Amino acid sequence: MGVGSRVRRVPRGIAVSVPVGVAVWWDDPADGPTNMAADEWLAAEADSRGGMLLRVYGWSPTTVSIGAFQPIAAARAAVDIRGVPIVRRPSGGGAIVHGSDLTYAAAVPRSHPWGGDPQAFYDALHGAMAAVLAEHGVEAAPFRPAGGAASRPDREDRFFCFDRRAAGDLVLPAAGDAKVMGSAQRRLAGVVLQHGSLLLRGNAEVSGAARHPGITELVPTASLPGPRGLARAWAMRIAAALGTAVSEEVGAFGDVWADEVAAGAARFRDPRWMNRR
User: pTM of this prediction?
Assistant: First the structure.
């Protein structure tokens, strides 16, 4: 099935004769705890459905998400994000300033073709985005460490995600290998949750080390569509790689599972979660 695969809009609760390949939700901007709770519930739903689920969303207000294993002291010592709300992700990786990026969460059960190989999952989603960006004049390539994919991430000690580079991250070779897309995973009992961020532009709410140039600054000649158009083309590329179709779900994920998300958000607001490291 090619990139022009049809998009099927399937309301929740209506049975379909063809298994859903990639189910997608478009969510409005929300605060950090709400977004993280929705992503955890997305993982639970992927385990239940047995397929790949994708949630594309925004942030309000501008928020910094830190990796599950980053010390809270490092976030509090970063003067360039002082006063910006912080949330701890359930996935790893470095800190990201959200609000001028395209953020996604994707989840697949362990039985999925990409569920048993973390790098394959990472590379598939990043490769699909590289193909879409190329159609709009942006030549992005996967970062390849000198020691191979199994080597430790480059600059792993850096606080911000976009100062680090791991195997498969999307970089712009023409801009000195500036990183524009990175992702992080959490492997649960029956499912893999992957968070990711495509940096569209520098965030005007921060400065200094926290403000990284995005695609619009690094490739001013690029003709990118809006975030939803970009994400829709990306989802169709992902589905094509799986030989299946995209199902655009009716309603925002956070609205459909509002009670579950609200309950989960309370945990992400709890200081015990934030201060766990």
Answer: 0.89
